[in-house]
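User: I would dearly like some help making sense of a protein record. I have put the entry right below:
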Amino acid sequence: MADTRPSWDEYFMEIAEQVATRSTCLRRHVGAVLVHNKRIIATGYNGGPSGLAHCLEVGCLREQLGIPSGQQHELCRGIHAEQNAIIQAARYGLPMDNSVLYCTTQPCTQCTKMLLNAGVTEIVYGEGYPDGLARDLLEESGIIVRKLELPSKRGGEGDLAKA
């Protein structure tokens, strides 16, 4: 009988997809999983800071201001999934050196800079994101970056960014 178990990449990306279902963003649901030696050390999804009202309750400031995706990230109540994963690992004293980030969306410039400084050495993402500077920083850093298309997602939209 053939092995029908998912690969490690598929396993962690499917978990990131599940984490994304907790997102409180009205525009894009993103999930992130930080992994070290095939063990999950932290997860994160995009949404407002703990204990504060989130966009599902108060609406989307970016939508109200007409801000396009990928621009002026500071004008948002939410924290990106990758940032939340880093914060959770740091909060509980879990080192991120030589870890892998599985993320449903390719990280933006701000998240990329944080991931590099946190010691993440590989990023596996599901869908592209139109951020040329993030791509340039990742290329310059030498970090391993891979696009992973889950079997259940194949045949969908094209990648917005070069892999």
Remarks:
- Confidence is low (pLDDT under 50) at residues 156-163.
- The first strand starts at residue 31 and ends at 36.
- The longest helix spans residues 8-20.
